Input
Amino acid sequence: MSEILEQLKQLEEESKKAIETAPDESTLSKIKVVYLGRKGKLAEISKNLGNIDPELRPKVGAELNRIRKDLNQQIGDQFQLIDSASATLRKDTFDYTLPGKRSFVGRSHPLMQTVDRIIQIFRGMGFSVASGPDIDTDFNNFDALNTPEDHPARDLSDTFYIKKGILLRTHTSTVQIRTMRAKKPPVRIISPGRCYRSDTPDASHSPVFYQCEGLFVDEHVTFGDLKGVIIQFAREMFGSEIKVRFRPHFFPFTEPSAEYDFSCMICGGKGCRVCKHSGWLEISGAGMVDPKVFKAVGYDPDKVTGYAFGMGVDRITMLRYRIGDIRLLYENDVRFLRQF
Amino acid sequence: MKISVNLLRKLIDFDWSVEQLVEKLTMSGSEVETIEHKGNDIQGILAAKVIEVKKIEGSDKLTYCSVFDGKENINVVCGTPNVAKDQIVLFAPVGSKIPGMTLKKAGIAGKESFGMILSEAELQLSDNEDEIAVLQADIKPGTEFNRIIDYKDIILELEITPNRPDCLSHMGIAREVQALGGGKLKIPDINLEEIDRPASEAIKIIIDDPDGCPRYTGRVIQNVKVAPSPLWLKMVVYYLGMRPINNIVDITNYVMLELGHPLHAFDFDLFKKPEVLVRNASEGEKFVTLDEVEHTLNGNHLLITDSVTGVAIAGIMGGELSEVSERTANILLESAYFDPVTIRRGSKALGLTTESSRRFERGADPQMAPFANDRACKLISEIAGGEILKGIVDTYPKPFAPVEIEFKPENINFLLGTEISPDLMCRILSGLDVKTKNGNRITAVQPSFRPDLTREVDLSEEIARIYGYDNILPVFRPGGALGAEETELLRVTRQVKSYLTGAGGTEIFSLTLVDSNLTKRLGRLESSVTVMNPLSEEMAVVRPSMLLSMLPVIRRNINFKEKDLFLYEVGDIYLPFDNEELPVQKNRLAIALTGSESPVFWGNSQRKSDLYTIKGLLENLTDHLKLGQIELRPEAHFMFEQSRSFEVYIDGNSIGYLGLLSDECLSTADIKENVLFAELDMDKIVDLIPKSLVTKELDRFPSADRDIAIVINEDIKAEDIRSEIINSSNGLAGDVWIFDLYRGKNIPENKKSLAFSIKYRLPDRTLTDDEVDNVHERIAEVLKKKFGAELRS
Output
């Protein structure tokens, strides 16, 4: 056996021992540099390959390659073994009842979950989503909606004013006016958003609340269409067993006007505390757009008809999750929000 | 509006059960909100005669009485001073029931009491609790209470919409029952016995403002006897929500509740002249109403005067000076029609709403005025006696002119999506007492009690609601492509929210009306939009920053020991008018962090959130949205600690700010934890998001990874070194990231050690070791030269 091969063999044994006993990653890295590095021991021998017996050269070369490959493999293995996670993974005891490593779990606000669902349902029925400012003119909020200054219906809502003629909208019907003033029919929109009324906060009133209104204007839209769209919504939102009823009502901006109720989803319509033993839950108002509204936005009431409806997103959220107090939705107590 | 089922039955015979009535009224637009059963808890009450009244020693109020119940004398303690011998009273013997109690034998002031002499209040017949109820002397002792009056009734509370003043009366509701097929309306009796003297000799009526007062009728009744009303009248008025006053006032109220027409009775002897002059008040004119409040009137108020002084604010409230009292003998009874807008403005300006003003401002029935007057006179003569002067003085300068509404049944069917026959339409209208005339088109004549019916579309509602909304078939249309587009803002907002929720954030939805004191103490009040008529100071400002609504939420949660918070909200803020018509509204994303970064874990200690946490969060978010790299630049913001206040930039565009809330801000908001806060402009984020995403080819050749650790002066920014590494790598450095920052042992003071990992690569081939060595060494040289960096081995 030639001296050079002997030397290689020794080098291999020495290095294998060093790798095996390397206690940590940095020692191992150093060992790697010492043996396999660009200026390492194996490289040194390779460099001197030209000086040895040409007959031996192929053999030494092959041996060098083999050792290099083996060491690389061994170092790689040892790195894995040293890796503490890896060691724990395989060796340490694992108490499978201990909690795992968690991060904080995020939550969507229940009101926003409901808005998203409403949007999803109405987009499926061909509605687009329109929006407008919370602070608007009394023209858009009242006058264009056939509710002039002296109209008794202005009593229906006590309004927050910013200054004369400028107010915090009392409903998102303002968006319907804005949309119709900007766009020719047909129009099919929903407008979700915050609304404001000067109601003292209690379990069912909040001065800031959340509504979604809908509007469809085209050449031949009927009261039957209105019933259809509300019934379809009710079924998608609360399940196909839900019944809907329409009662005549009054709004200055619709004629005929209706209020619509859903059968109580809590008792199934049999009567309970939530529905005040009537079996029905009042949801909101709807109706056929009054011709005066069409005139105010520049539509020809002889050419188009349309329906409009509203709904309280807070109310629907409260019914969805059986929330007894509207203030919970706006207090943002994380103990409440964590339940969603 | 309260409706007595007993009174309703006097106006129409219907054989529906109360449940059917409730259902039919509700489904035709007069929603029944509550049903109250009156008198159900009264049992065993009798008329009794007071035989003897003895004082009880040591008590100034109590008496010991003996009453005869038709069979025997019974001893009873009475606490009401008006009890007297020979009165016929209502007596509750032991075992009988009155609301809230069953009578038992009792010992009071040392005496045995076997029952109770009742007041009207104890039977809930009126609010008079100070006196016992004294019945007519001709009622026999022992007569059962239900034979004396029909006290059992059902009171329905109806929600009447503002367009239906006619339904603010039993007559109006009876007409609804008629339209719904319940029967035929019965007109109340107004057959009067008059004396020969004509009323027109006694009173002259002049209307100065026929627009404000299109009709005024007056009747004069002389020698009436003003007294408390009979029990039945008190009871009806009280059941229907009004206070019994005296027989004259109660009758006017009763007729108003019955027919819907407000009336007013004057003590005619207190008129300075036998005249009624209806005129506008003069500016600043004072007037004292019968509730003893002095009002200052303006020129829009309509005043009823006796030609000398005011006697009533028209349609709203009468005056103290001409009020009917026990001394009154001669009465002027007013039944007028006032203009709705005039009454509404007057009532609003005075802040005074009455049962009368409520009806006039919605629209009373001008044709009803004389009828209501006659009806009240009839009842007055029956109850209070007196002689009715001949004739009614009726001044009617602006007679009612009904609108004739031409309508096409097919238009109505078109709007409703129905096939109702023209004949059925006419029958429905006729049930509502709307007359129709047939011709080419059908003409409907507006009744005087329906100010809301003027157009074809109004008739369509009448037809629809009586036909039944339930009978209109729903139509299910297929969805369609009709403009179902979604705005970018909506789409991006959803993406942002879903990312932040996934990252552990709790979405909040806070009130946009915020505390004006908090706003003021943070110095923001001048630059905020404020509410002119707020409910309270706590909700007087429309938020100028998301911070204002988030601070109370943070405080609340910390108070409830929820200290590790990661809250976010996407919402709007409002900035003052900028020469625009409306304030500026901007959509913002706000994030707040307090406490620990992660939940408690047994295996390691928690770390508190810091500026790197919130910066990292925004980096993750913007990375997720495919926005460019975030860059922070120091910039002062009112809410932040001076050295911890930054503007957030992406590609040179400011998108918002982040920082650590200042001690001042925290103490103002009463928060005792550190709060990291960021507020970003959603519109700018939407603008900066690439409109399209084009994927890059992947590196096909392995990279060479090298580390470099340097020691530099503390004030050198990491990003400057990082970009220098990229710049001096001849394009070979792909990713460069910092994997270590170290200060302390072996590092001199005011220095820090930074370690970078660099990925060298080329797209088209593998780099040789030499190439990598060369560039790595050159980078080290550049860092040495430019930043005085020392290499760490």
